[in-house]
Fold Decarboxylase orsB.
Amino acid sequence: MLLLTPLLTVLLHPLLPTCLASNHADIPYYTLEEHWVSPALAPFLLQNRVIRALNLGPRASQLLPEVGPLRLASMDANNIRIQTISHVPVPEALYLPNLTATANDQLAARIAASPQPGRFRGFCILPMGLPGAAAAELRRCVRELGFVGALVDALLPDRRAYDSRAYDELWEVAVTLDVPIYLHPTPPNPDEVFDVGEGLYAPSVPGEYSEYEAASLGTWAWGWHERTGLSFIKMYLGRVFERFPELQVVLGHMGELVPFFLERTDMKLSGNRSLTFKEVWGCNVYVTTSGMFSLDPMTTVLRTTDSKRIMYSVDWPLELNEDGTRFMAELRDSGLVSEKEFEDVASRNAKRLLRI
């Protein structure tokens, strides 16, 4: 059993949530940012000081390694027909192709051994520090393991993004195989969180706020979302989408802040480029709702993004399926989307993108 550090209040909910109301159970959900941890990479997760400071707690400890009855029961209780599973971010693995391959094999085996393997799909983890190896592993996972794409750390440990031509081989494989690349937040380096007076997310003077608050600021409260959006913008500036106009990228958490800056980013960066930033946003990007269950950001996403490119996701088990269920009920009742658009967000867009 994976043992993570003590308790985070938000995760201390029952393992098996109550059934959702029947009037919202007619349209099934397909979710795309749902996590697990492999035996091969769990030791790195345990050793990451930033992750330890987040205090993931016993609930995540029990659910992250499991692809079986507990996961399925939560899916059943919350109307989730298909869950696409991906590895939690492990920055240390980005230069370890043998271990990432082992982790992918372990995920494929866990899915195959689950009571209902048809309820799951897989995104592979890739050694993004080695572009050639990442391309080869994506090809292997799609062709041999049946995975439907990759979910990758948005930045390398040295904060480099994927805007250089070194990654063209990877994008070419993704386009050829017609699978998406999901850019996912990755933890900041420990010095950015814990070096008081110097670290970007650390307090300016000792004792101003806790290590947990500094780690949260650098991760799920702000930092890693902003940096994931930045990674995507750098791909645009590196003309990745001009070279690979069919490449599809997924951004979670309501678009990793990009929708809120879309007009300004487009105005300041598009210039005389053959593709404007807005054009790339409209043709090359899908957005998921993972971990953000409020109609306020969703309203902005709907105003900036075609509803055929918005997909429901939860970020389970770090977030709760029942919170996502409540959000989807609120969305359906809000008048922000038609019934057709709601079904697109709930499942149809994911089915089309992942060819389910």
User: Anything to note?
Assistant: The longest strand covers residues 29-36.
